[in-house]
Amino acid sequence: MEFLLDSNMKENVSILPIVGIGGLGKTALAQCVFNDEMVSKNFDLKMWVCVSDDFDMKKIVINIIDCAKEKASNEVSLEKLQIKLREKIDGKRYLLVLDDLWNEDPEEWLKLKYYWWEVLEEARSL
Ligand SMILES: Nc1ncnc2c1ncn2[C@@H]1O[C@H](COP(=O)(O)OP(=O)(O)OP(=O)(O)O)[C@@H](O)[C@H]1O
Ligand SMILES: [Mg+2]
Question: For 81-118, how does the pLDDT look when each residue is reduced to its tens digit (9 = 90+)?
C-alpha cells in the first residue's frame, strides 16, 4: 500500500510482482488493493487485464486500452495501438494490474517492457 501511494514516484514506472503458487490468493490480494478507496483516489486511471496462458502482445495491449474505456478493436497494428495507448495514459497516474501471468519467458517480458517504454518516451516528448 505504501508502495502504491508514494507520491515521490510520479515520474517513474514502478512494477510490483506478486508471485506464488495457484490458489494462494494473489488475485484476491490484488483485487483488495485495486478496489481500495485510498488507492482509487490516488490514481487517475485503473486498468485490470487478465493475461492468461497465451502471451499475445496485441491482445494484451487491446485489453489495456479497452480497460481505459476506449474502443481499440478496430485498430490493426501494434504501432497504431501504441499511439492510442499513449493518448490514454499521457500525464496520468495509473495503476495497471496484469493478472494470471504465467509466462516465464523473459524474452516476452522484455518485449512488453520495451513496448511500454516506447509509449512513455513518446508521451513525454509530445
Ligand atoms: N485472505 C484470504 N482468506 C480466505 N480466503 C482467501 C483469501 N485470499 C484468497 N482466498 C480464496 O482463495 C481462493 C484462491 O484465491 P485467488 O484466486 O486469489 O488465488 P490466486 O493466487 O490468484 O490463484 P491463481 O494463481 O490460480 O490465479 C479463492 O477462492 C479466494 O476466495
Ligand atoms: Mg489469480
Answer: 888 888 888 888 888 998 887 777 777 777 888 888 77
pLDDT at 110: 79
Tell me the CA–centroid distance for residue 3 and ligand 1, in Å.
22
pLDDT at 78: 82
Distance 122 CA to ligand 2 centre (A): 32
- CA nearest ligand 1 atom 8, residue: 25
Instruction: Please give the Cα distance from 11 to 9 (Å, whole number).
Output: 6
**pTM for this model (two decimals):** 0.78
DSSP E strands, the chain: 45-50, 94-99
Residues within 6 Å of ligand 1 by CB: 20, 22-28, 100
Cell numbers at residue 109, please? Answer: 517480458
